[in-house]
Amino acid sequence: MKISLSILSADFANVEMSIKDLMNEVDYIHFDVMDGEFVPNITYGYSFVKDLRKMTKTKFDTHLMILHPQNYIKQFAEAGSDRITFHVEADCDVLSTVRLIQSFGIPAGISICPKTKVEEIEEVLPFVDLVMVMSVEPGFGGQKFLESSVEKVKRLYELRKEKGYSYEISIDGGINDETIQKVSKYLDIVVVGSYVCSHKNSLENLNKIKNI
Prior knowledge:
By secondary structure, this protein is α/β, with parallel strands linked by helices. The protein has one domain (2-211): TIM Barrel, CATH 3.20.20. It has eight helices and eight strands. It has helices spanning 15-23, 46-53, 73-78, 94-102, 148-163, 180-183, 194-197, 202-211; strands at residues 2-6, 28-34, 59-65, 83-87, 108-112, 130-134, 168-172, 189-192. The longest helix has 16 residues, at 148-163.
């Protein structure tokens, strides 16, 4: 299981120093990009991703929580994203957006909110590189893990095996050393945020996740 570190809870005033000791300990840096329309919060844009790209060689996992992701794929790809994930609930043609991301030579992921069922995305599963289940409502860090997400990752795991699909399975939201144990056997990638970035013992907590 790979670890993608969400920096949503990091100190943006000095982001390099706040995650310096963690960047080389994880497989991905996870960027939660919010536009204030798809979710009621605003974070950062592609220029932030581009600036941080100069600081590390760790792969960038860009999660677009924006209403019109198709309009910004090129910018985030050129900024240094190694993978781009967008929401199927956004205002876009899902399959066309997947193909647009892949046209830049990077994997394309889709994400589903807690209200969206796995059955609603089955027709696009053969074409995507990643499916990310939101185990909290998107838009804010530090939320409680939603138990309903366990069945979703399990179903995605079963479908992949049954159909011979190749997508990776990820989960994002409310992950700590207890909640990860409920889903770890179904995952390829786990997104960890406040459990690591918001604690003084960040490396210790990261290692707890790694050991599980």
